[in-house]
# Entry
Amino acid sequence: MDSADPSTNAALKVTGESVISRENVAVDRIRTEEEQEIANNKRSIIWKSCGGWNAASILLANQCLATLAFFGVGVNLVLFLTRVLGQSNADAANNVSKWTGTVYMCSLIGAFLSDSYWGRYLTCAVFQLILVSGLVLVSVSSWFFLIKPDGCGDGELACVPTSSVGVAIFYLAIYLVAFGYGGHQPSIATFGADQFDESKPKEKKSKAAYFSYFYFALNFGSLFSNTLLVYFEDQGKWTLGFLLSLGSAVLALVSFLFGTPGYQHVKPCGNPLPRVAQVFVAAVKKWNVIPAKADELYEVEGPESAIKGSRKILHSDDFE
# Structure
């Protein structure tokens, strides 16, 4: 049998080594991506032997109570402005629309502060304090300045003309309520989701289920404010309705603080606006640059990102 050509054997050996090398590179890359994902989670989240459904349940109850408190003021606000403050239906509806819009605008402020600087726990605590402060002023202003005589504003007994001081305090109060609840809403939703570790399949499913329960808690709190509190307010017991809302908000804050030792926290990532602007500037400057290799796209070596609280974006060949 003729022996093989030495040059052919050498070529086959080189080809085999090249294939093995490419396979090793692919395996190393997969392994590096997995290690990077684990490192990102460890860096950005302070994992403790807590969290899970115990902590999330407290936050769900907090959401329910805070929603009850907020809608205890908001659901009958048009009637209060017409029956107690003597405004026309058009003016009352216009004022309530502005107030509702303020709630949604303040949600942007709360989300920005929680993700960028304060963290979700501190943001939730601060905005709940603002909510409680607003409800205190709502109760005080209605009790001492606006509801005169007692029981007025029920659709039959008219209230006496209100003082400018009482009206000013009331408007300050309801906008504090809007600011507090608006900033609290986005923070409590994501803070509850932070109690579950996505790297664990069981907790990943629990995290998805949490948002369903969160929506249920929101509507459950709204149900009580739209039935029980509305009944008292329609009967002219406005101050009682506001005091019940205040009690619900205080209970929500106390329960939130009570669960402090059991929470898990995600580190804030700093102001994202400069980083977003950098993307557009870099895209314009490098419009004609030839795409780099996958292993040359990271800003620093190693599994961690140079941006605090951020993850490295893995390279994808899907877009060319």
Notes: The chain has nine helices and two strands. The longest strand covers residues 45-46. The radius of gyration is 29 Å.
